[in-house]
User: Fold these one by one.
Assistant:
Number 1:
Amino acid sequence: MKRPQHLLSVSDLGVEGIAEVLRVAEAFAEVERRSMPKVPTLRGKVVATLFFEESTRTRLSFETAAKRLSADVLSLAVGNSSVKKGESLRDTVETVEALGIDALIIRHASSGAPHLVARWTTRARVINAGDGWHEHPTQALLDCFTVRQVLAERKGAAPEDLGIECFEGLRVLIVGDIRHSRVARSEVLAYSALGAQVTLAAPGSLLPPSLEGWPVKVAPDFDAALGDADVVSLLRLQAERGSGSFVPSLREYTAGWGLTARRVDLLRDDAIVTHPGPMVRGVEIASDVADLPRTVVTQQVTNGVAVRMAILFLLLGGEWSGDGPQE
Ligand code: NCD
């Protein structure tokens, strides 16, 4: 397939592209298991992270990924930058690009900001690391990667041997603040492109105003939906996007929609629980549930590095299809 210029949305990849990212990420996960987990693949390339919103794992894993590929990494601390003096997004981006960077990884509170940035850059590839309520494509890709890894482990098979067929008919239940969640939007696109059946469970106030065109069902009964799910994807209440005013109180939200110790007993024995982090223990997930082996949060974080290595590799020069990353 043709290499996309940027990664702004899961839909830039299509099913073939998602499969390619999962395949290449598998090869990089192997690199990560080595005692010296570094390859010279992107030597001489410069990757910049431009985060206008808080982040722990996304920024650290992109930077780790770039370093493992031997790229040079620039990290703009927006709080200490000229943005604070009133510089516009466009001028900031043009300034950063003028330093000769090859990839710009951007997180912004405004939906669509990375799309604008992609129009302004002349040679740098733009990667969306989360824009407002809109999308967070690399999170959805690493979620798919992790789910396939768990399914493969259980079968004693290699993940690549499962291909993408393992997603066909997989029942994925996305729970919580879907209205304000960019992770949910990207997960819906990725899982459904791979053939999974996606169901949403949320109070009406936390569903998007319209689901027209979304390839999903809405669960009429949360407890029953939990009993049907192969994968449960939990989301944090996006308080910074005003979700607090959409629920009566945190206690009532947890009682109605949290994955509590009682609800976890409704799950099938083999159901997998994912969460993009940061988790708020005691709200969307009970603390004991967060620590169960079926809750794969730390595995997701680990896999974030290999998946982001794959994205950087594929956007910055790697071959699509064929023999995988060359050293
Ligand atoms: C998510 C985000 O920032 O969109 N976190 C992440 O990137 N791992 C989800 C969240 O903040 O709730």
Number 2:
Amino acid sequence: MNEQQKLTKVSTSTIQDMKARGEKITMLTAYDYPTAIVVDKAGIDMILVGDSLGNVILGYDTTVPVTMDDMIHHTKAVARGANRALVIGDMPFMSYQASVTDAIYNAGRFLKETGAQAVKLEGGREVADTIRKIVDCGIPVMAHLGLTPQSVHQFGGFKVQGRTDTAAKKISEDAKIVQDAGAFAVVLECIPASLAKKITKSLHIPTIGIGAGVDCDGQVLVIHDMLGLFEEAVPRRFVKKYCDLYDQMKTAVEKYADEIKSGTFPDKDHSFK
Ligand code: KIV
């Protein structure tokens, strides 16, 4: 990345130009101000305030209980920390499914109240009309196909999608449908790499993979997973741990507690005369 690119705010057209140039797109989740600053300064192109915050911030088993108010609260904090990256607010379960009116109203809240520049929602043909109407209001939409976690109860668990010919055909068709409805990009989650490659070749909008192989136009991970912020191993095979922050944080907190008990904290340097 050159100096000019480091300073210029990423827009949906930057992302589409990157696909045209064959340049890989980077995306990570973030849910708070300090993390957004780190991710932004590291040069990540897009920050997704994912409804995965239900799992990694709020401690739920699924993303289903996450509310619009949870999402607005966290997206505001992220947008304050992101100067360069494109910030995308994830529309939570039942904020867009019941009616197009709800969907437009809630998508609008992300842009008006938080400072996000785009929204993401899950689904293919069944949400095509909703995507079109939100885009018609001037709100960029990222689509999400394959393993869509809000439908976990329908899938019967977190399983790889698109393994049969029929399922693969449906995901490929849905990718074209959401593109035609005006989505500026599409997340492909947990599908075979060969299917993701085929879809990526067939679309003019970028694909962002998570568990979808190396041939997508970009990649996304949940930041808590790649930083190793939980003690237990991440069950999803596609996650690569880039460090072990759980251990580092625990060691620091234990040291702090030991130093209080032994009377070595606070020392002279951390006290006033
Ligand atoms: O909610 C989320 O973090 C997501 C990504 C995993 C794509 O949807």
